[in-house]
Write a structure and sequence with these properties.
rod-shaped
Length: 185
């Protein structure tokens, strides 16, 4: 393998006295390669006009630009529609918010009114209950006082009455009842 590379390196050092070899000078080889490529292009590209290619390319670029402009216009139109919908939705949301707040205020007032009515009814029930309990307590006290008075009166009567007085009272009462019976007949 070393022999092959040595032969290529040695070819680069040969003088250009009419023999074939590799030119290692980059600048001169680029010019030669460029001229060969241009010659091939001119020879084989006679049927293809460069201006036609450029015109076709220019037309495709213009078409692409026109399509892009149309797409841009459509996108702008869609954006405007979306913005209009957004404004409409925002207005509806504001309306719902306002209605919601007013509905909340109405419900709050209804709740306050309902609660105050309930409190008023509870106050009335409380007052009625207090009156009922007071009346019941008064009646109980009256009954106890009456019972104690009756016991005291019976005790006094029993201690003051003897048999004779007792018989006279019974006779007097029988006489009163008898006269009442005559009046009613």
């Amino acid at each position: 393998m070393k022999n092959v590379t040595d032969s290529f390196v040695s070819l680069g050092h040969w003088p250009s006295a009419g023999s074939f070899g590799f030119n290692t000078d980059i600048l001169s080889t680029n010019l030669i390669n460029l001229s060969v490529v241009l010659g091939v292009l001119i020879f084989f590209g006679k049927g293809v006009c460069v201006s036609d290619l450029l015109d076709n390319r220019k037309q495709r670029i213009f078409n692409t630009i026109r399509n892009s402009e149309e797409l841009r216009g459509g996108a702008i139109e869609q954006l405007e529609k979306a913005r209009a919908r957004l404004r409409k939705v925002e207005m509806e949301a504001d309306q719902f918010r306002v209605n919601g707040y007013s509905e909340i205020e109405r419900e709050k007032l209804n709740l306050i009114n309902s609660t105050s009515k309930t409190l008023e009814q509870l106050e009335n029930y409380k007052n009625e209950t207090i009156q009922f309990e007071q009346q019941r307590a008064i009646n109980q006290v009256r009954q106890r006082v009456f019972q104690q008075a009756l016991r005291g009166a019976l005790g006094t009567l029993n201690s003051c009455l003897n048999n004779e007085l007792h018989l006279r009272t019974i006779s007097a009462n029988i006489g009163i009842l008898g006269s009442m019976k005559e009046i009613t007949d």
